[in-house]
Amino acid sequence: MPKPIVALVGRPNVGKSTLFNRFVGQRRAIVEDLPGTTRDRLYGETEWNGMVFTVVDTGGLEILDSSKQRGPQDRPVPLSTASAGLIEEIRAQAEVAIAEADAIVLLVDALDGMTPSDEDIAQVLRRAARPVLVVANKADNEARRQAAVDFYALGLGEVYPISALHGTGVGDLLDEIVAALPPALSEEEEPEAVKIALVGRPNVGKSSLLNRLLGEERAIVSPIPGTTRDSIDTYVTWEGQPLLLIDTAGIRRRGRIDRGLEKYSVLRAIKAISRADVVMLLLDAQDVVTAQDAHVAGYILDENCSVVVLVNKWDVVEKDTHTMDAYTQRIRAELKFLDFVPVLFISALTGQRVDKLLPLALQVCQERTRRIPTAELNRLLEEIKVRHTPPHKGKRQLKLLYATQAGVEPPTFVFFVNDARLVHFSYERYIENQIRRQYTYLGTPIKLVFRSRKEKP
Description:
By secondary structure, the protein is an alpha/beta fold. The chain is 30% helix and 22% strand. It is globular. It starts with a strand and ends in a 5-residue tail after the last strand.
């Protein structure tokens, strides 16, 4: 089910990563007392007053050109090329978050007071057609809380003084965020169709593939990365099966961004993945797997979506009889956590193997609903124990008592054991591999839950 997205934006070193960690309840973002520490957008899930939403931590946002920044008395001072590139990159990340978020938290620094950069950011946010909450961080004492009233001059409404470090005022802020968010789309409102999302970095061929699947120019196709601005939902029927194809856009280039363009598609991918039954992760055969591909693949796994890896632009690769095997091995090595996922080599341009895509997607989708009868599962459990004796921890040995399948989408198995603390991750992986050896679960993640005998089901 899609979850609302809250973006944390603001100039560098105002405490966005600290607030992000406070929201999600763990140290997911690196925190340093240096401006510009956060360069990659990070996301995490949180819940407040029954509302589950995604929080996105962005880099700092600077509204300035690529060669200058404001110095003391607002005088432009030159930046090194590297620094200019970093500021542009951080700015682009934050602007993407602004474009995609359902609500925006503008973080300012109560200790520094209002700066020209805060005013510039506020000017951009006033054009955002979504709720904006101005949050004055580092308001650790009454004097700073009183000083926070200066930020009303930004013209964005209420100002919320908090201390992200100490947690002061964060609960009240979360109340306001939840009140500002749109209601989550209920399952009843989602279409009765298999939802297939096309996800990947800009310019890997998502729109070209959609057009090829539909046999018409449904989406604008251009060699310029990021042509598509919004996700496109297309309903089709394939051999009697209703499908919803979700084409996720690359992010249009804003200003001059010299590096890291592929990073900016993540947020839109998050939205699409959270809606999908099956995700088609497109890779570019000319690049194979980048760090950002692995980043998106990790989010797919976090959302427990089924997935197929598509290697597009296969027509431009010089190959022999061993090329496909070599590419497959490289993909398996780079995406080790997706070793259960099928890999299909295609060309959206020529149509090579595109006819195999939808049948494969539906096969993978069917795997999400596969159920193993309890008797069969426990016979397999006995074989698992014979093939590999459960591990010891000191003088105590793990005992696998019995198992049952508790759910589907994704398939979830509960194993009752003498003590769940004795389950080593390597043995858990062994059990998963044995289940897949017998039942495949092609392209579909499975969840293993271990419960001590004393725990209630």
